[in-house]
Amino acid sequence: MTGQDLALVEIRRLEPEHLTRAYGLDMKLLYPWDGMAAPFRGAWCVLRPGDSSVAHAHHEHEIFIGMAGRAEVVAGDRRHAFAAGDIVFLRPGIEHHLVNDPDAGEDFSYYAIWWDREMSAEFAAHDTGEAGSA
C-alpha cells in the first residue's frame, strides 16, 4: 500500500480509555475529526451494567446501532428490548433514555447518530465550497 492509498482511508480506533462520562454513560463524540465533514453528528456510547442515560428529547432525528450486549430503550412510558445488531430510530421530540440492567453483567455498546436540516445544509454548503472558513 502506498502513502497515497493511506490518505484515502482514515480509521478512528475505539480507544475505550478515552471515553468521557456524560449523560449517564461513557462516550466519545465523532466530532471533531479534522478533514471530515458529514451531514450528521454521532457518538460511540457505552452503558455499563446499572447505568441509565439521562432522559431527554430533542429536535434532531436519531438512530442507535447496537454493537455489543443488550439494554432497553425507554420512550415515553414504553420499554423496548435493544440488543447488538438492532437499530432504533427515534423521531424528533420523543423523550427517551437507555437502561442497562444492573444484573446484565456486561456493557452495552452502541453508536448514536443524529441529524437535522441545519446539519445537512451546513454539510451541503461545505461540500460545494459555499461555506466560509468552517
Number of helices: 2
What's the main sheet like?
6 strands, antiparallel
Mean pLDDT: 89
Helix content: 10-25%
Shape: globular
Low-pLDDT residue intervals, each spanning 5 or more residues: none
Strand order, biggest sheet?
Answer: 1-2-3-9-4-7
Q: What is the radius of gyration computed over CA atoms, rounded to a whole number of angstroms?
A: 17 Å
* Strand content range: 35-45%
- So what's the oligomer here? single chain
Query: How many strands appear in the DSSP assignment?
Result: 9
Distance between the termini: 32 Å
Derived structural class? mainly beta
Helices and strands, in order, run as HEEEEEEEEEH
Structure write-up:
Helices cover 13% and strands 38% of the residues. By secondary structure, the protein is mainly beta. The chain has a six-stranded antiparallel beta sheet. A hairpin with a 2-residue loop joins strand 1 and strand 2 (25-29). The radius of gyration is 17 Å and the shape is globular. The two termini are 32 Å apart. The model has no long low-confidence stretch (mean pLDDT 89).
Q: Topology of this protein?
A:
Blueprint: H1 3-8, E1 20-22, E2 25-29, E3 41-47, E4 61-68, E5 70-75, E6 78-83, E7 87-90, E8 96-99, E9 108-115, H2 117-127
Antiparallel strand pairs: 1-2, 2-3, 3-9, 4-7, 4-9, 5-6, 5-8
Question: TL;DR of this structure?
Answer:
The protein is mainly beta and 134 residues long.
